[in-house]
Design brief:
The complex is a heterodimer of chains A (352) and B (326). With 352 residues, chain A is an alpha/beta fold. Chain A has one domain: Rossmann fold. Chain A contains 11 helices and 10 strands. In chain A, strand 5, helix 6 and strand 6 form a beta-alpha-beta unit. Chain B has 13 helices and 14 strands. Chain B is α/β, with parallel strands linked by helices. In chain B, helix 2 links the parallel strand 2 and strand 3. Chain B folds into 2 domains: 182 residues, 3-Layer(aba) Sandwich (Rossmann fold); 127 residues, 3-Layer(aba) Sandwich (Rossmann fold). A 7-stranded mixed β-sheet of chain B has the order 3-2-4-5-7-6-12, sandwiched between helices. A 5-stranded mixed β-sheet of chain B has the order 9-11-10-13-14, sandwiched between helices. Chain B has a two-stranded antiparallel sheet with strand order 1-8. The chains are: A alpha/beta (352), B alpha/beta (326). At the A-B interface, strand 4, helix 5 and helix 6 of A face helix 3, helix 5 and helix 6 of B.
């Protein structure tokens, strides 16, 4: 553990509701959140330059959920998310150059340039997507949880959805079966207040989303998704609940996305004041920095220096990813079938 | 060889594969304690227990998705839809998830799953419970679509489907469940993607799958009485299609009628006739004809129902038209 060099008389870490975090852990959390922020900004920039195409959903503002959740989980636990997946896959520890190359549609993309922004997968890190249809990942996540129940292993599935996704019917089908069979699944609702352009109160009769599991006997908690230490602590409790065989649990993390739904969304459905209130008043990165500075664990200059280094690193990543070639044309026909049938697929002859 | 029913053949295939591989499990509505809505899973709960034969709530989208996730996590689910009509509720998981997962994940996540159940028309159950949707499924790259027409094929194809690493849409036929036929005991595998010539003949090719294979064979008997020697080809796997076997037959007979229970527009017959036109044009002495379900929802009344489905008489008639003997 690193020592508190600035204030040798103070403890070398931060305490949050009974959990003590070492200086190393705090820096890890901070650096990953800041890295995700700068990575997303770079992605936004490359999108503006038309180097990234299609849909691109950034998670600026929501970094504490991605990072806190990962710090509370084990590498063997499964993670599934919606299409707003860059922050989660980076927090999971996947190669950021491969993630950036994927956004750029390059050969070295994390899924070989076949998925893009919405379909990040990393089987080695048990990151099972990256799903583009709203709420689709929830029944799939249920299946990962089922596999743990079937095999009797001690893995937990973290299944992330948004405040929009939680209105899909398949989510409730999944809540029901998860509770019925006590499957080890933590359902995480990233409540960023808006389903595309529709605010929570225009889409949900019950806006306390953590209560959505009540009729399935799934306990729920609402947590501050703008505080990485709160996310880490409560996700740890939720994961422990699921791992101990008590069945599923629901966590609603209150958060906010600073950018529009996707790159084409100017977000005119909300006021600048509202965005500023979250961005300047509740920003998860600034919050942790201030906490660490106040505790004498770091200085503002240290963080400025770090930011410069991270920006440099992100630039280098973008450059390396951009330098990669596009996928080889032969990749068009691979990965359609795991067991292709020779002579029948692809179609014989020259047509089609 | 044993003489058993189509449903018993399916049951045998599942039991043998579950004995062979612990990762295989069966899930669906009424599959366990009720022993299957159509008794296909009769006795399986007793044999394998509630962990491997699992009753679900009525929640097709949910348990189809559960199957996809379980397959991605390395299990080999058999997901039973009581009928394919209800699978429409699960279409997102079949089309957007199962079919595309391997490609979208750059080859990382295989989805070795079988979605199975009764398709096609049942008897007197009207529009929502009588329809052939295989052309929807067959349009999707990433899926395999298998439709057995007799008990032996049902066993051999289902065993192969369970061992396959890709998502397989396995469409049975409710009317065929009680059909009896010779089925090899024990290990019996029919490779996916291989058509079968059910009756050799030299004058005309009748291509038909699932229940329509029986109709085509009956039509061939009738044609034989009229001095016409028909060959009946059953594709067995709709996607990927064994084009070569069909083309080989047409090269011999120079005439072809495609029969299907489903609707005509963009149906399986449209695909098969297009392929014959593309690659077998010079072998044809007449246009490929199609006998299909009528382009209407299925009615309840017995006479209207019978009119909606293809009939043996219509197949005979089409063959005679093709051969210019009508």
């Amino acid at each position: 553990m690193a020592t508190n060099t600035n204030h040798p008389d103070k403890p070398a870490g931060l305490e949050f509701e009974g959990r003590t975090h070492s200086l190393d852990t705090l820096h890890e959390m901070h650096d990953m959140m800041l890295f995700i922020r700068r990575f997303e900004e770079k992605a936004g920039q490359l999108y503006g330059l038309k180097k990234i195409g299609g849909f691109c959903h950034l998670c600026n503002g929501q970094e504490a959920v991605c990072v806190g959740m990962q710090h509370a989980s084990r590498p063997t636990d499964y993670v599934l998310t919606s299409y707003r997946d860059h922050g989660h896959v980076l927090a999971r520890g996947s190669d950021p150059t491969a993630v950036m190359a994927e956004l750029l549609g390059r050969a070295g993309g994390i899924v070989k340039g076949k998925g893009g922004s919405m379909h990040m997968f990393d089987i080695e890190r048990n990151f099972a997507g990256g799903n583009g249809i709203v709420g689709e990942q929830v029944p799939i996540g249920l299946g990962f949880g089922f596999s743990s129940w079937y095999r009797g292993d001690d893995r937990v599935t973290l299944c992330v959805m948004g405040d929009g996704g939680v209105n899909q019917g398949g989510v409730y089908e999944s809540f029901n079966m998860a509770a019925l069979w006590k499957l080890p699944v933590v359902f995480v609702i990233e409540n960023n207040q808006y389903a595309m352009g529709t605010s929570l109160d225009r889409a949900s009769a019950e806006t306390h989303l953590f209560k959505r599991g009540i009729s399935f006997k799934i306990p729920g908690m609402q947590i501050d998704g703008m505080d990485v230490l709160a996310v880490e602590k409560h996700m740890r409790e939720a994961i422990e609940h699921a791992r101990s065989g008590q069945g599923p649990i629901l966590v609603e993390a209150i958060t906010y996305r600073y950018r529009g739904h996707s790159m084409s969304d100017p977000a005119t459905y909300r006021t600048r004041e509202e965005v500023d209130e979250w961005r300047t008043g509740r920003d998860p990165i600034a919050r942790l920095e201030n906490q660490m500075i106040e505790a004498g664990l770091a200085t503002a200059d240290e963080f400025k220096q770090k930011d410069r280094e991270i920006k440099k690193r992100v630039n280098a990543i973008a450059k390396a990813a951009e330098a990669q070639p596009e996928p080889d044309p032969s990749e068009l026909w691979t990965d359609v079938y795991a067991n292709p049938i020779e002579g029948a697929y692809p179609y014989p002859g020259k047509v089609g | 060889m044993n003489k058993i029913t189509y449903r018993e053949a399916l049951n045998q295939a599942m039991c043998e594969e579950m004995e062979r591989d612990e990762r295989v499990f069966l899930m669906g509505e009424e599959v366990a304690e009720y022993n299957g809505a159509y008794k296909v899973s009769q006795g399986m709960l007793d044999k394998f227990g509630p962990k491997r034969v699992i009753d679900t709530p009525i929640t097709e989208l949910g348990f189809a998705g559960l199957g996809v996730g379980a397959a991605m996590a390395g299990l080999r689910p058999i997901i039973e839809f009581m009928t394919w009509n209800f699978a429409i509720l699960a279409m997102d998981q079949i089309v957007n998830a199962a079919a595309k997962m391997l490609y979208m994940s750059g080859g990382m996540y295989k989805v070795p799953i079988v979605f199975r159940g009764a398709g096609g028309s049942a008897a007197r159950v009207a529009a929502q419970h009588s329809q052939a949707l295989e052309n929807w499924m067959a349009n999707i790259p990433g899926l395999k679509v298998v439709m057995p027409s007799n008990p032996a094929d049902a066993k051999g194809l289902l065993k192969s489907a369970i061992r396959d690493d890709d998502p397989v849409v396995f469409i049975e036929n409710e009317i065929n469940y009680g059909d009896i036929g010779e089925v090899p005991a024990g290990e019996y595998l029919i490779p996916l993607g291989k058509a079968d010539v059910k009756r050799p003949g030299k004058d005309i090719t009748l291509v038909a799958h699932s229940r329509m294979t029986g109709f085509a064979l009956a039509a061939a008997e009738e044609l034989a009485k009229q001095g016409i020697d028909a060959e009946v080809v059953d594709p067995r796997t709709i996607r990927p299609l064994d084009e070569e076997t069909i083309l080989r037959s047409v090269a011999k007979t120079n005439h072809c009628v495609v029969i299907e229970e489903g609707w005509r527009f963009a149906g399986i017959g449209a695909e098969i006739s297009a392929r014959i036109m593309e690659r077998g044009f010079d072998d044809l002495d007449a246009p490929v004809l199609r006998v299909t379900g009528k382009d209407v929802p299925m009615a309840y009344a017995a006479n209207l129902e019978a009119m909606t489905l293809p009939s043996v008489a219509e197949i005979v008639e089409a063959a005679r038209v093709s051969l210019n003997r009508a």
